[in-house]
Design a protein that fits this description.
The chain is an alpha/beta fold and 300 residues long. The chain folds into two domains: 29-117, Leucine Dehydrogenase, chain A, domain 1 (Rossmann fold, 3-Layer(aba) Sandwich); 141-263, 3-Layer(aba) Sandwich (Rossmann fold), CATH 3.40.50.720. It is 43% helix and 15% strand. It has helices at 8-30, 45-60, 76-88, 107-112, 125-132, 141-152, 172-181, 196-200, 246-252, 263-287, 290-293, and strands spanning 4-5, 35-41, 64-70, 94-97, 161-165, 185-189, 205-208, 226-229, 233-234, 240-241, 255-256. Strands 1-11-8-7-5-6 form a six-stranded parallel β-sheet, with helices on both faces. A three-stranded parallel β-sheet has the order 3-2-4, with helices on both faces. Strands 9-10 form a two-stranded antiparallel ribbon. The protein is globular and about 55 Å long. Bound molecules: nicotinamide-adenine-dinucleotide. Residues 142, 165-168, 170-172, 189-191, 193, 196, 209-212, 215, 230-233, 263-264, 267 line the site of nicotinamide-adenine-dinucleotide.
Length: 300
């Protein structure tokens, strides 16, 4: 039987509605409007599209967003000064630096300048460390979105074999940590992995985030596996595809997320979730209101 399709668009829409209500309640109770600053340096066309999608999404859930665009030759000192100003601004609860940055900038220094309580992308070393020991404050958005998709469709995680293909700092590694935190047995594969199929075929849960179209084909997938395709690749004709050969993988899997319409809508949604959660925590610190003091930390 062909796999059921996981509708990321629908899951994302439901979460946005839930968080729109949460953001309205926060305003009603404390007068706080969640605020997100998005910083971009340079003129990468894909980054421009991502930034404008994030700004639009903010409005849909009651987040006030501000965009800061810098030329490609911005100095590190200028960029860091802006981040420090925003870190001190009480109207801003989340700061996002759109990646990639121009090559002359030291990404570690730039991300390290973000106030760790406003690090809604979860890339500050403090938050990375929190994720490693299971005390997550800001889960990185893409793997956080994947966890929500798995939970939404009721996939059991504890004790299952999970294989993550891709080991980047923003997707593969945090993904593996989140699955480990939920007691899956996790293998991580990457470009130097020999014989990828010998790992993928063992996966009950297969997460693919490599950026290679058709990397995963049906015979590499265990019958009945849950497959989440994180990859986004634009083919020469303009078509958007993931890392899996959808048709052959869907014949083996029990559940599969499509591209587009799978993980993509969840990534932006989790940014909104992290920003509203940051605003709730800031309001709780400021007012010590009992109802907000326990503003929940994410379960990943
Ligand atoms: P990256 O280039 O930083 O990392 C890619 C990882 O995949 C590396 O660890 C590399 O070793 C591994 N890899 C590359 N080729 C491989 C191969 N042939 N076999 C096994 N492993 C291989 O990329 P990233 O930022 O982690 O993104 C990965 C993919 O996910 C890209 O297609 C990106 O566009 C997509 N992405 C999607 C979303 C979303 O919201 N859906 C968000 C972030 C990234």
């Amino acid at each position: 039987m062909p796999a059921s399709i996981i509708d990321g668009q629908a899951v994302a829409a439901a979460m946005r509605e839930q968080y729109r209500l949460r953001s309205a309640a926060l305003f009603e109770q404390t007068g706080t409007t969640p605020g997100l600053a998005v910083i971009m340096a340079g003129d990468d066309p894909a980054s421009r599209i991502y930034v404008s999608k994030k700004i639009q999404a903010c409005a849909s859930v009651g987040i006030a967003s501000r965009k800061f665009l810098f030329p490609a030759d911005v100095t590190q000192a200028e960029l860091i000064r802006q981040i420090e100003d925003l870190s001190a601004d009480p109207g801003i609860h989340g700061i996002l630096v759109q990646l990639p940055l121009p090559k002359h900038l030291d990404i570690k220094a730039v991300l390290g300048a973000i106030d760790r309580d406003k690090d809604v992308d979860g890339f500050h070393l403090y938050n990375v460390g929190g994720l490693v020991i299971g005390e997550t404050v800001f889960p990185p958005c893409t793997p956080y979105g994947v966890m929500h998709l798995l939970d939404h469709v009721g996939v059991e995680i504890a004790g299952r074999n999970a294989v993550v293909v891709g080991a980047s700092n923003i997707v593969g590694k945090p993904m593996a940590l989140m699955l480990m935190q939920r007691e899956a047995t996790v293998s991580v594969c990457h470009a130097r992995t020999r014989d990828l199929a010998q790992f993928t075929i063992l996966a009950d849960i297969l997460i693919v985030a490599a950026g290679c179209p058709n990397l995963i084909v049906g015979p590499m997938v265990k019958s009945g596996a849950v497959v989440i395709d994180v990859g986004i690749n634009r083919l020469p004709g303009g078509k958007l595809v993931g890392d899996c050969d959808f048709d052959s993988v869907a014949k083996r899997a029990s559940l599969i997320s499509p591209v587009p319409g799978g993980v993509g809508p969840m990534t932006v949604t989790m940014l909104l979730v992290n920003t509203i959660a940051a605003a709730e925590r800031a309001a709780a610190r400021r007012t010590a209101a009992p109802s907000l003091r326990s503003a929940d930390l994410p379960a990943v």
